[in-house]
Amino acid sequence: MVTGKGGTGKTTVAAALALALAGKGRRTLLVEVEGRHGIAQLFESGELPYEERKIAVAPGGGEVFGMAIDPELALLDYLEMFYKLGRAGRALKKLGAIDFATTVAPGLRDVLLTGKACEAVRRRTSKGGTRVYDAVVMDAPPTGRITRFLNVNDEVAGLARFGPIHNQAQAVMRVLKSAETAVHLVTLLEEMPVQETVDGVAELRAAGLPVGSVLVNMVRPVLLDEETVRTAAAGHRTAVAKALSQAGLGGARRGGLAERLVDPLLEQAREHAERVALEKRERAELEALGLPTYELELLGDGVDVGGIYRLAHALRDQGVR
């Protein structure tokens, strides 16, 4: 499960993680549940259907499949699975009852989404055979509602105390709370995303849900060493003017090119120093969580298919397997 505050790039990170996990001939399934079609856009493929479709080949021959889980179609699957409704279920869809149920019934939509993903996790090639997928990655809802989203089956199991729905809800929770599941949190080195990550980890732990790692996205390079950052923060005009002069940008005399460049450069350097100091504080907040942390660089040219492969390579280099 990959979650994160809006704007942190969780869909991009989920796609890169699925690609990284598909190395060495393995198969991964990348699932989206919010109907935004972000995965299709990243891999420049057509809109994902409610069925598994190959969308990428990983280095080493692994495969990434994608699927968009539609709650209405998932409910039809449930009606067929538990109540053998068949054509009656399709008739309900035509009458609008399925859409009504998934929109109005409390928590039902999330039950269907998590249940379908867990079915893919448990599926095997044959009875007693190997699992169809080595890993299933979900581009999950944002951090603010991830705990509620994952815990809804516990609530359903409590409401329906026996029967197929109760049993299914319990089976889903066994998968979600197992050692095979992990909720990874995507963040930026900024105050609000980091605070939401810290709060999200606390909520997940309180609910007994397995927290995986922190994925710091869009990390910008540090352009100045620590000593230069301190000099820039202090605003030493003379030292900067002298350095510019030594670099061949004219003398440090008043009105010269070096002199005219000092103030704009000092302003940029001060902004950089402030950002470096902020990121250092935010890293300390994340380190205090005691979770594995991975960093992904900011892709200056935007995210395309090549960028996803680049990020997946970075994750593998940092030990994600």
Automatic annotation (TrEMBL):
Gene3D superfamilies: P-loop containing nucleotide triphosphate hydrolases. Residues 1-176 form the ArsA/GET3 Anion-transporting ATPase-like domain. GO terms for molecular function: ATP binding; ATP hydrolysis activity. It comes from the Bacteria. Signal peptide: none annotated. Coiled coil: none annotated. This is ArsA-related P-loop ATPase. It comes from Streptantibioticus silvisoli.
